[in-house]
Amino acid sequence: MTVTVVGLGLIGGSVARDLHRSGFAHSIVGVDSSRENCTTALEMGLVGSVASLEEAVKAAEVVILAVPVNVIVKILPKVLDLTTPGQTVIDMGSTKQAITEVVKQHPNRYRFVAAHPMAGTERSGPTAAVERLFEGRIAILCDIADSAPDAVAEAKRLFSTGLRMNIVTMGAAAHDIHAAYISHLSHVISYALALTTLDKERDVNTLFSMAGGGFSSTARLAKSDATMWTPIFLQNRDHLLEAIAAYRQHLDNLAHAIEQGDEIKVNELIGQANRIRDLLP
Amino acid sequence: MTVTVVGLGLIGGSVARDLHRSGFAHSIVGVDSSRENCTTALEMGLVGSVASLEEAVKAAEVVILAVPVNVIVKILPKVLDLTTPGQTVIDMGSTKQAITEVVKQHPNRYRFVAAHPMAGTERSGPTAAVERLFEGRIAILCDIADSAPDAVAEAKRLFSTGLRMNIVTMGAAAHDIHAAYISHLSHVISYALALTTLDKERDVNTLFSMAGGGFSSTARLAKSDATMWTPIFLQNRDHLLEAIAAYRQHLDNLAHAIEQGDEIKVNELIGQANRIRDLLP
After folding, report:
1. How large is the ipTM?
2. pLDDT tens digits along A16-73
3. pTM over 0.90
4. What is the CA radius of gyration of chain B?
5. Per the CB < 8 Å rule, is B230 touching A263?
6. Domain boundaries, chain A
7. A2-170 — its CATH code?
8. Which residues pair with B140 in a beta bridge?
9. Distance from A281 to chain B by nearest Cα, in Å?
10. Does B19 touch chain A (CB under 8 A)?
11. Which distant-in-sequence residues (6+ apart) come within 8 Å of B104 by Cβ?
12. Which CATH architecture has domain B175-278?
């Protein structure tokens, strides 16, 4: 089958690579507003050809949108305008409510499957594409009752057979709440840590060389691109602000126990946090 | 030479392994209040023998303290009581002011070198010991004017030749400020994130399986042991609280921009945070 991938960055590039490698797609058509990304993706063999959005949508059985979420809400209605009953459109955005909302009344809404493959790195662009980025991770499909059964089946086949992901289904609102806590909050935290340390440590070259693996791990997500993350934060604003408020309470609680020199309380809070050991690999 | 390692956990075990492997020490004597740790360290070949603190200090040219910082302030004066002019005592604690303060007036203070090798993992105990944990990392030596030149030379040789680290020297107060920002704050942040998410996500097994690499990276340090970290937080309380306050300002600033839906400001803050790319590998 022919798959069109719109957006040839880390996610789109990695999807293209794995769908081709796994044999899910025999032909990949790429779309990207950056001529440089198109050239790179062709040179890297991520896509077989590049085309305009209109041509590329027409050419494919499955159309994947792997652009920033503010671009998804802009182009998804246009893509659905072009979509015919045999086609399936799948987005890869990290928010789901704003995206499903914008096509709620679209006559071709049923050809669209709202998805979020929970995988990525802090890098961006086609050169950041990696093989098996998605393998073993969770792909969340949202509001599938609003999609045609054959479109859902195609999306499930793509994520499970093509990308070797485990599939979970839930409502768009539930997704956005969980994503706020499990993904978006981590990015806010990491950006704030980077800003704090960059601000404090003027003599940065010497001092960052001091940093052990711990700092690098906690600050890694702060390398993530604004083009992708600003619109995620803004689209998921309410849930994210709730998550930040909850986080601040735990932070204040821990800071207060430290300020009081309350050894028992600090120990207890760290012990509670340590339960994460059982849940994270 | 014979080296005594007091505390056979992640740090002590890893130091013992590398000092023996590199040929810096032909014989390693271990000390640990846990009989189980002693047995494990012997079985793993991390140490050649175990002994009481008193015997082990007498047996060695170099004595390394790799126990939690609250234990270091307790046993360092006792170790220095036993120390003779030919011996060097080096601690590996993550705080330096409280530790140097407690032996300021000790007649054998000059045999002690206050050190902090900036390396570690979130694991603990002798089974967490890994080869080359320290290689290429920074070892900070503090207040070296208070140590005998031959003791400083021995410590430098140990960290550079034995553990292949890069050495930086600074005052204990400067160390504690930098450590607050570059290491201790990351742990506070990670504990608070783990507490927030564990608290929110009741159906944890399903939901944590959603977590991509980003969450795991940011929450990794929350696996770190309370036995080690509670005393670090309490000993470095003032600098750490200052770092937390600075961090909260940046967090609030970012949250405010998100709340306002201020795309330009959010973009700008993320762009500033992205400068961390140039500083972290």
Report:
1. 0.93
2. 999 999 999 999 999 999 999 999 999 999 999 999 999 999 999 999 999 999 999 9
3. yes
4. 21
5. yes
6. 2-170, 175-278
7. 3.40.50.720
8. B116, B168
9. 8
10. no
11. none
12. Orthogonal Bundle (1.10)
